Amino acid sequence: MAKTILHKANTRGHADHGWLNSYHSFSFANYYNPERIHFGALRVLNDDTVAAGKGFGKHPHDNMEIISIPLEGDLEHTDSMGNKTTIRNGDIQAMSAGTGVAHSEYNANTDKPVKFLQIWVYPDQKNIQPQYSQVTLEPADRKNKLQQIVSPRSNGSDGVTIQQNAWFSLGDLEQGKQLSYDIKRKENGVYLFVLKGDVTIGDLKLNTRDGLGIWQTDTIAITAGTNAEILLMDVPMDI
């Protein structure tokens, strides 16, 4: 029988630094909840809003897969691998920190905030050479279906690639739309995060910014109660 864990939006950790307003689905920085350290290989899911012209100064990471999904505005990225890029809504960015990388992230605009999801996934191999990937996807390709945005490096398929047996998908569903998702590996579970709207999974109703972890099952059935946008993260549970 499937196991589930529900994280309602209003139970997330919260930090408001003025220039940064961040909600944490899992323990991060000054927010610590021993029951919410990670969901399998998914370690961090931060829902960030950065004020106009502000951002994260240069800081290091190692042995973590870092995925950024812009929701609104433009985020400027610079790193020690020599990459300097701007990511916007429709773009997906991934960085395998491996042996170590430093990067900065700034709101590229001086007149409006930038909103993005910052997601960390434990890698399946430590101390690899740092790597970077970025793609621009067509939002229309997720209308009433799931669009794959992250896949394992060994697959080399849709979206950006990371050093883990993980697959992420985005869906933009119209009210009443029903779809099913087959979990990629029996060792994996899915963490579903509702970006907007209401969806139902089994007898659980999820609202905007709610998260639901599901594992020990093969397939998930999703029904959109309203127009809804969702993010599915299919990750190993056996880390």
Computed Rg: 17 Å
Envelope shape = globular
Termini gap: 21 Å
The side-by-side strand order for the widest beta sheet comes to 1-20-17-22-15-13-14
- Overall mean confidence score, pLDDT: 96
Overview of the molecule:
- The chain is globular and about 45 Å long.
- The strands form 4 sheets. A 7-stranded mixed sheet has the order 1-20-17-22-15-13-14, with no helix packed on it. Strands 2-3-4-11-6-9-12 form a 7-stranded antiparallel sheet, with no helix packed on it.
- A hairpin with a 2-residue loop joins strand 18 and strand 19 (204-206).
- It contains no helices and 22 strands.
- The chain has strands spanning 3-7, 13-16, 20-24, 42-50, 55-61, 65-72, 74-79, 84-88, 91-96, 101-107, 114-121, 131-136, 146-152, 160-162, 167-173, 178-182, 188-196, 199-201, 204-206, 211-215, 219-224, 228-236.
- It is mainly β and 239 residues long.
Top keywords for this entry?
mainly beta; seven-stranded mixed beta sheet; seven-stranded antiparallel beta sheet
